[in-house]
From TrEMBL:
Residue ranges constituting the GFO/IDH/MocA-like oxidoreductase domain according to the UniProt record: 127-244
PANTHER family recorded: BILIVERDIN REDUCTASE A
Keyword entries, A-Z: NAD
Source organism per UniProt: Microbacterium aquimaris
Domain Gfo/Idh/MocA-like oxidoreductase N-terminal residue range list: 4-93
Gene3D superfamilies, per the entry: Dihydrodipicolinate Reductase, domain 2, NAD(P)-binding Rossmann-like Domain
Pfam families: GFO_IDH_MocA (PF01408), GFO_IDH_MocA_C3 (PF22725)
Source superkingdom: Bacteria
Protein's UniProt name: Gfo/Idh/MocA family oxidoreductase
Keyword NAD in annotation: yes
Length: 311
């Protein structure tokens, strides 16, 4: 059945999600942006509104919603959509550090359907690696290294990303939420987690570099996150086991090598492929992306920021 979808936030991510909705044969019925021109540009067949409240008063009803606004707005908008009984895919982070999730947790325990947009877990290489680890192909996992780094020329991201009150912080919350989430999903609970972080780019008081170290079961691991003024090197996720290893590059290409065989996958269009897969996962109610799954990641990020500020 084709679904009618409400999209809140018609910026870069709103457009990616709208494309995924259309690719699945669903329809963007309502487009919301504080900037009405942007709302109108999201989908020529959608009704455009300047606020979520306005859209919820629309005569057009919807089956699902997507939240793709600046991060601090996610929590309030989630609670509003939960109260309206609309299943919602929310961009990461589902809340920013310091925001109290109590209202959202109450809504979820009351049955609200919320799916968090952890797009990197929908990369084909990540799906393959999850399967290989689950099947024991890599043996006992001993090492885990995730280097998620991006060249960030001036103006590459809207200014709100570097305003802690809107984004919640720098690279740790914006990209680290993906890295910590996928480490937890692949390895289980992270223990003895420590972090260092600092600004790198001129004019930033939020962190552009963060390094997180942890233990998880039999593995020791590290996550390095970077926003740089140059093209970073040696990036990607590497999982090392006693019987094999897997690597996923930042372009989505991947390699899994065991004593028996080597399998590989090509680079993907990371702006479309994972978002189409993610929308299908949301539609079919795939497990692993709920607030219960992601709230511990946010609590962990919150504690890392607290420890950093405590010195
Ligand atoms: N999953 C991923 O791979 C990924 C990648 C990039 C960004 N993100 C997340 O997506 C979210 C959006 O990021 P973006 O880069 O698209 O930002 P953006 O600034 O390009 O777009 C945000 C849009 O929201 C609109 N907006 C602001 N306040 C609003 C309100 N109250 N109601 C409705 N619209 C409002 C803005 O006008 C803007 O058009 C962020 O939370 C970010 O962390 C996720």
């Amino acid at each position: 059945m084709s679904r009618r979808v409400l999209v809140v936030g018609a910026g870069v991510m709103g457009h990616r999600h709208a494309a995924a909705v259309r690719a699945a044969g669903d329809r963007v019925a309502l487009a919301v942006d504080a900037d009405l021109t942007r709302a109108r540009a999201l989908d020529e067949n959608a009704l455009a509104y300047g606020s979520l409240a306005g859209a919820l008063a629309s005569p057009e009803t919807v089956d699902a919603a997507i939240i793709a606004t600046p991060s601090f707005q996610h929590l309030d908008q989630l609670v509003t959509l939960a109260a309206a009984g609309i299943p919602t895919l929310v961009e990461k982070p589902h809340r920013i550090p310091g925001q109290d999730p109590a209202g959202l947790l109450t809504a979820v325990s009351g049955g609200a359907e919320v799916f968090v947009g952890m797009s990197t877990r929908h990369w084909p290489g990540y799906v393959e690696l999850t399967r290989a680890i689950g099947a024991g192909e890599l043996g006992e996992i001993v090492g885990y290294t995730d280097r998620m780094a991006f060249a960030l020329p001036e103006g590459a991201l809207p200014a709100w990303y570097f305003d802690r009150s809107v984004s919640g912080g720098g690279v740790l919350v914006t990209n680290g939420v993906h890295a910590l989430d996928r480490a937890r999903a692949l390895l289980g609970p992270l223990e003895k987690v420590t972090a260092t972080m600092r600004p790198v780019l001129p004019g930033h008081d939020t962190e552009d570099h963060a390094r997180v170290r942890f233990r998880a079961g039999t593995a020791t691991g590290s996550i390095e996150l970077l926003w740089a003024a140059y093209e970073p090197v040696a990036t990607g996720l590497t999982v090392t086991g006693t019987r094999g290893a897997g690597h996923i590059a930042m372009d989505g290409s991947w390699r899994i090598s065991t004593r028996d065989a080597t399998r590989t996958g090509d680079a993907i269009d990371i702006d479309t492929v994972p978002f189409a897969a993610q929308w299908q996962a949301f539609r079919t109610g795939a497990a692993g992306f709920s607030i219960d799954d992601l709230e511990p990641t946010l609590t962990l990020i919150e504690s890392l920021y607290r420890e950093a500020s405590d010195g």
